[in-house]
Amino acid sequence: MAPLRGGGGEDRARGHVRRARPHSGPGRPPVRRLFRLGIGRPRPRDAVDWEIEHHLAEQTDRLVAEGWAPDEAADEARRRFGRMRAYRKRLERIERRRAWMRRGAEWTVAAGESLVASLRSLLRQPALSAGIVLTLGVGIGANAAMFTILDRLFFEPPTHVRDADAVRAVLIERSSLGRTFASRSMAHPDVTDLEAHSALTAYAAYSPAERTLGAGDDASKVRVVTASYTLFPLLGVTPQLGRFYGREDDRFGAPPVAVVSHEYWTRALGGTPDALGRELRLGGTMFTVVGVAPRGFTGAELAAVDVWLPLLTGGMGGREGDEWVDNRGWFWLRAVVRLGDGVNVAAAEEEATRLHRSGRQEDIARGGYDAGARVRLDPLVTARGPEASAESKVALWLGGVSLLLLVIVCANVANLLLARGMRRQREDAVKLALGVSRSRLVAHTMLETVLLGLAGSALALGIAYWGGAVVQRVLLPGIFFPDPLGFRLAAFTVGLAVFAGVLAGLAPALRATRLDLARDLAEGARGSARRSRLRDLLTVAQAALSVVLLVGAGLFVRSLEQVRSLDLGLDVDRIALATLEFEDDLAAGLMSYGRQATEAQEFNALYARALERARRVPGVELAAGTASPFGWSFATGLSVPGWDSLPDLPGGGPYFHVVTPGYFETAGLALTTGRPMRETDGPADAPVAWVSETMAETLWPNESPIGRCLMIDEDDACTTVAGVVEDASRGSLEEREHMAYYLPVAQREDRRLNGLYIRAADDARAVAAGVAGTLRGFDPRVRFVEVETLREALDPQARSWKLGAALFTLFGFLALLVAGIGLYGLLAFHVAQRRRELGIRSALGAAGARLLGAVVGEGARLTLGGVALGLLLVLALGRFAEPLLFRVSPRDPLVLALVAAALVSTALVASLLPGMRATRSDPMDALRAE
Fold this sequence. Notes:
The structure is a single chain. This protein has 28 helices and 22 strands. It is an alpha+beta fold. The protein has 4 domains: about 10-95, no CATH class; about 165-380, no CATH class; about 390-565 and about 800-930, no CATH class; about 575-795, no CATH class. Strands 1, 2, 3, 4, 5, 6, 7, 8, 9, 10 and 11 form an 11-stranded mixed sheet that branches. Strands 14, 15, 16, 17, 18, 19 and 20 form a 7-stranded mixed sheet that branches. Strands 13-21-12-22 form a 4-stranded antiparallel sheet. The protein is globular and about 135 Å long. The chain starts with 8 loop residues before the first helix and ends with a helix.
């Protein structure tokens, strides 16, 4: 139908009506217009719909003005508009982008205004802000310092290991002497058995040890790892300089080569390329440096490494020929493997177990090996596995303790901010009355605390850098920490600062949502005397958590005291152990067994000369030689008439010790019965032995062991028991019950001495340096002399308790300090709030002692509530901490009593100052305020 043109005033009138009333769109219910009330922002789709409707309405009006009928004009307008759905989607995208940019600009402006306002608010009270920043910085810094340790131990695999989840450490789990244990030590054939494993793409063997570098005055100890050439490609590492040694280097007869770590290269070799080709003297062999490992590379473990040597030219092969290659009795290697893609770990362990048992079949058949031994393939991050060290377990607890400290800090900060909020509640009430939303007040409060937390993160990074380095160096010296201030630490610290700011701001923000305009405006001029139950709860929580930290500190300190007072038989504080390395001594840290009597006699003659020189050092009281220094023990065939087989004890044995006369007196071992060892005890006399108390009681209960017979090394000759000495540790704090016997060195010409026991008149540390200087260079064949006290030798075993005692005590002291400050702040604020009430009570005749008692009583009430809650937490958590303690109950009454007394004393001190201020309330101030 042709359009109607010149349709007269009726159509124009309708057109004008349409222009005045926007077109609702075809098929759109007019009721939708009721929702266009201008509340909030329109959705992009609604805005596009309104724009399209407006466009269609205008086009329809123009067509009507040209003479079209209204319905036909509307249809034509839609036809001319075209693909409405496609245009609508495009317009929606444009509208969304514009709305997003508009909201972003508005948010930026609002955030900038809030930021400026928050900074001004914080700067108005610089002392309070600085105190909060310092408090948060300490709490965040303690957590950041612990993060550097926990991240290295639990989360970050060894540096430069490619696809670390596919690399597994090999452990052998087996039973011996009635106990089951897992060990990483294995023989070389045990490692090569894995070559037939179908699910492994590579395997490698290695062995870490301390070796002597150089000789004479320039000699030093370095940490050396002898490893098969397959280790580097298995881990996926590339050298920083030069090359790694390969198959042609790792074979018998090959020229000795070495790879140095990046750290040793920069520290000892100048960090220059000409270090390649330099020679390092390790033991009696010269090794040529062919490469430098990348920075931070420590192999498959976390301990620092100085030098890497090929397995066949730098390890046991350089000292004992090639006997160890096929010998399953030399347990000195560790192994790592790489699993193929998609390999099931449990299935891989089953196949590895089958191969291991097959290789050990001969030993199993004769009863010399556990038939139920199984292979485990554990992650490289051993701290997360069952073989986690005591230090890593304590570090995990300390991570939780540092979080508790942060919670205490946040509670204290929240208390301070609540006090400030009570002071400015009238200001906030005025803002609400002027139209500021409660959400805006909450956001402003949270922004302030986040800013304070971020300011504290700068201090926290410094604490993490310096404090973490001290903890790492003193208490975890065996772990290599590559980056003191890496990205992970910075990200963790900033994230924790934001979290701490939000946590500390929750309580003040909650207060902002509960303002009562009428009451707060009325009370604002005079100040409010209302108590804050939330602040009281936060104070009680601080006290309770402080109890937990202080009890932990006390328990670890008590454990450390138990360790230091432990009776090991040996007088560890007065004894030093001296060991010598000679030019022709091929032991290099491992015990050589002196297979020929002439070789043993030569070594023993050198030690006898060293013994005479050591006795002349000022401060030395006694000295004696031993073939099994502290930490070493040996066993051999032994039979006793009357016993078909000797009983098994948890610690194994019997272990024998070859010593010189005077050993018992030097070591501090009491002779309980029999005669002492004499210089004449030797080959010319009948062989004699001295047994430990445990051995005497086990083999001859209720009988005298003197004159009894021992058959040693399947020899028909009888060795007569000449005496009984008290039990002594073989080198462990947690020594298991074992049997031991002692033989004169002159009686065993095939055994060589390996150490000297030096007994000081006072402190062994005072004479250790003098003994070292005297023995160094007394013979041209002496390459290196090492002297350490037995206490120093035991220190690594006590490191977990030292770590716990030091950091628990530090965190506990900080928690106690923060809790005391928090209690003081709460009471001081309450006194300030109640100044009118206190003034009136003073005017009515209340004595100052009564006002003081009221304030101190309030502090005592809150503190005792916190102590009670904290003790309940300690009783609940004690059983989890018990495995980390040493002969101390987690419910030790002495520790609990001392902690309660310390917290109550702190509360008393914190309450006295506000209490004294309460006694000085002026009645005139109260009257003027009224």
